[in-house]
Design brief:
The complex is a heterodimer of chains A (about 110) and B (about 120). In chain A, about 40% of the residues are buried. In chain A, strand 9 and strand 10 form a beta hairpin. In chain A, strands 2, 4, 5, 9, 10 and 11 form a six-stranded mixed sheet that branches. Chain A is mainly beta. Chain B contains no helices and 13 strands. Chain B is globular. Chain B starts with a strand and ends with a strand. The chains are: A mainly beta (about 110), B mainly beta (about 120). At the A-B interface, strand 4, strand 5 and strand 10 of A face strand 5, strand 9, strand 11 and strand 12 of B.
């Protein structure tokens, strides 16, 4: 069964600090992996999409890595800000189209002063 | 561009009532999908559409109907609401690009969600 597991479930960090969120998946065959940011009460917003051949991708202070061999991804947030407080969702797409996305349950990040 | 819009934002229904959740996108995307998000669970696909006139079931389709008469609109109908359908519903759209091995989705754009409570 295709699964996406994220850790930690929740995280609290001080503003200005860095953090790394983890994603392990068992989706096969693999097409791409996405990270989304979901603010409370809003829809998810895409941060990065990585295919099999990409092992790192940045979007501002967000850097995602992908190891397709070990089926692991991480999202690193640099110099955190209060506005980074959100749920971060890892989504893995298998091949074949729109019905093949497997969503993780998300890591709830809180950035405090 | 308004992106993906959803109405209503909040809705309370009684068991057995029916209603339609509206979703529209102005990006000319082929793919549209409906998801539900429940506490402690990842988003789950209800129904999706690969273009006007074409719909298919996702992971949790029971109790829901969809239609796609235009590229822009993808309404979700609850035929007879049940408390188990209390959830937050998200509509999403995306365009596809063709790569070796078949089409794949590009990034999805999500609407703001509809919070539905069924009493």
């Amino acid at each position: 069964k295709n699964q996406v597991e994220q850790s930690p479930q929740s995280l609290i960090i001080l503003e200005g600090k860095n953090c790394t969120l983890q994603c392990n998946y068992t989706v096969s065959p693999f097409s791409n992996l996405r990270w989304y940011k979901q603010d409370t009460g809003r829809g998810p917003v895409s941060l990065t999409i990585m295919t099999f051949s990409e092992n790192t991708k940045s979007n501002g202070r967000y850097t995602a890595t992908l190891d397709a061999d070990t089926k692991q991804s991480s999202l690193h947030i640099t110099a955190s800000q209060l506005s980074d407080s959100a749920s971060y969702i890892c989504v893995v797409s298998g091949t074949g189209g729109g019905n093949k996305l497997t969503f993780g349950t998300g890591t709830q990040l809180k950035v405090e002063l | 561009n308004a992106g993906v819009t959803q109405t209503p934002k909040f809705q309370v229904l009684k068991t057995g009532q029916s209603m339609t959740l509206q979703c529209a996108q102005d990006m000319n995307h082929e793919y549209m999908s409906w998801y539900r998000q429940d506490p402690g669970m990842g988003l789950r696909l209800i129904h999706y559409s690969v273009g006007a006139g074409i719909t298919d079931q996702g992971e949790v389709p029971n109790g829901y109907n969809v239609s796609r008469s235009t590229t822009e609109d993808f309404p979700l109908r609850l035929l007879s609401a049940a408390p188990s359908q209390t959830s937050v519903y998200f509509c999403a759209s995306s365009y596809s690009i063709i790569v070796a091995g078949g089409p794949r989705l590009n990034e999805q754009f999500f609407g703001p969600g509809t919070r539905l409570t069924v009493l």
